[in-house]
Design goal:
The chain contains eight helices and five strands. With about 220 residues, the protein is an alpha/beta fold. It has one domain: NAD(P)-binding Rossmann-like Domain (Rossmann fold, 3-Layer(aba) Sandwich). A five-stranded parallel sheet has the order 3-2-1-4-5, with helices on both faces. One of its GO terms (molecular function) is oxidoreductase activity, acting on the CH-OH group of donors, NAD or NADP as acceptor.
Length: about 220
């Protein structure tokens, strides 16, 4: 039965917990008197375990890999399409900046779900349970919608959507098996919610919009 409108002012709203109480507790002494070598804000964002960065040989994926190492990650695998020689400079730069970290590379087409599953299983075997997946793989083609080829359209959806789902699913399956929990980040784009006119990229916008909904669906379905 609907509440009387006047009752709404005394209604108790359901509480939402966004993180553990211990991580929300104020730590004024630590923040104000911290040792010169410690860095509490960084500690709050410390990451550990094993990471997979799909598209890690690209610009944003490589920067994200670096950020994970800066925040404490020790084991990371890059899954990407180009050859090992192309990815090599990125891996050697990371290896020399983070000598204690273990970094591996596997060449894989994310739209090939069998190959993705094999690569992800190999990571668990060699590095351990996966704690974080970030998928940066994405392609765009610039063609006017009137002339847009279905080949480019299908390539964008195969890579940006089927690929995103394939890596997310492969990692989720290992997380179910290892029972360790984990985080999955799917990179979309502002183009998934806005038309960046005059960029001619209808397939990119549509595919990134789908990534955004996939993220929402999986967050509810797998997070529950
Ligand atoms: N750069 C931007 O301004 C921007 C803005 C918004 C969103 N994004 C998104 O962020 C992500 C990364 O962007 P970026 O600028 O680093 O792009 P990038 O082209 O530098 O990196 C993309 C990576 O994906 C890889 N890749 C492409 N197809 C693949 C496939 N089938 N299998 C495996 N790997 C494949 C490429 O080899 C490349 O290393 C993309 O998803 C992009 O759509 C980028």
């Amino acid at each position: 039965m609907a509440e009387a409108r006047s009752d709404l002012t005394s209604r108790v709203l359901p509480a939402t917990t966004l993180c553990f109480a211990s991580s929300l507790a104020p730590r004024p002494l630590e923040l104000h008197n911290h040792h010169a070598n410690s860095n509490p804000p960084i500690e709050c964002f410390r990451v550990s375990g094993v990471g997979i960065i799909a598209g890690g040989a690209g610009d944003l994926g490589a920067a994200f890999s670096r950020a994970l190492f800066e925040h404490g990650l020790q084991n990371l695998t890059i899954l990407d399409a180009p050859s090992e020689e192309t990815a090599e400079p990125i891996i050697s730069r990371l290896s020399s900046d983070f000598p204690l970290a273990k970094i591996t590379f596997t060449r894989v087409d994310v739209a090939d779900s069998g190959a993705v599953e094999k690569a992800v299983d190999a990571v668990v075997q060699t590095l351990g349970p996966i704690t974080i997946l970030a998928n940066f793989v994405g392609v765009v083609c610039c063609e006017h919608a009137v002339q847009h080829s279905l080949h480019s359209w299908r390539r964008a959806f195969e890579t940006n959507n089927t690929g995103s789902f394939a890596v997310a699913q492969a990692v989720a399956r290992t997380v179910v098996t290892t029972k360790k929990g984990g985080s999955i980040i799917l990179v979309a784009s502002i183009s998934g919610t806005r038309v960046n006119f005059p960029n001619h990229q209808v397939e990119y916008n549509a595919s990134k919009a789908a990534v955004i909904m996939m993220k929402s669906y999986l967050a509810v379905g797998w997070g529950a």
